[in-house]
Amino acid sequence: MDYTVINNEKDNRFEIHLDEKIAFEQYKLFDGGISYIHTEVPSELGGKGIAAYIAKYVLDYAEEHHLKVKPYCPYIKSYIDRHPRYQANSLFHNQESQQNEN
Question: What is the pTM of this model?
Answer without folding.
Answer: 0.86
